[in-house]
Structure prediction request, 318 residues.
Amino acid sequence: MTRHTSIADTLLARAQEASPAVAKELETAAKKLDSYSHAPGDRKAAARIAPVLTPAVVDALGEAFIALRRAELEGTDPIWGNEFKQADYAFAALLLASEDPALASAAAPHLDALVDLIPRLHSDHIEHLNYLASADTEQDRRIKAAAAAVIEAQPATLAEQWAKALGLDLPREYWTLTLILQLVEPDEEDFTTPRIDAALLADIKNYPGDSTDWNIRIGLFSRNTLGGSRAPASDRGIPLGSYHREDRKGEAIVEGALEPAQTPFDFPRILADLRAAHPELNYDLAKLSVSGGPGRLGSAARKKRLREWLAGDWTPEA
Prediction:
């Protein structure tokens, strides 16, 4: 549901009062904004707005963006859907314009206003600004510094507590990690050992200053949830913590129920409980897969620490 006037509509309204040349620029920019199906995932994607930027468009985008953020702060309704993606592109446009001598003066007052607003914004919105302000420019650094000051004043999220306890050296920024622990694959000539989809997976997402989204599940292709921040009490008729896994022929069956994980710290306990209940499940710790972003977070040092943690060779202080 639209709760605020979209930035594209604001540009069209402004075009009604502009000269024909400026009106055409504003209408083109509004059409461009309306064409996007989702918010930019990163700075590179956000750069798609660059071709329509002119001094008049940058000024209009900046004014509409700041007005939208102020309206959100002064009211009770957050920005959603179309408003959210257009706000992201408008913010990116200001940053891109700040790098262009012909556009920088149009962007500057709106970026100044944004820096003043950042301490009042919700943490997840601040982090989103921080995420898009990824270039090594003066204005990007200003935004990141203002965002970092707010986030640092907030309590550590569960994900940050987990990462710190494990010594993973992850930043107080948005990040996501996925751990995949698969079974040792039988030899190709081994036709007797069942091939059961019983891989263990953990997804952990950090929203600094705000929250953690996490889940632990069994199965790569179909899943049973063993715990999570948003895990329902039952998934497709299977209670949380219960599992039913089969081989490709539907013959070999691994099933049971575990005490559901309460936090990401419970992953080693889930692994130990499965091993105790099903000694035939031979998990391959040496090939633990660790992936994440932004950037490449699955370094050799992090994988080593996570393998030690899952093996029970090292226990962090939760």
Observations:
- The two ends are 41 Å apart (CA to CA).
- The longest strand covers residues 200-207.
- Strands lie at 175-181, 200-207, 211-218, 224-228, 234-235, 238-239, 242-246, 253-257, 289-293.
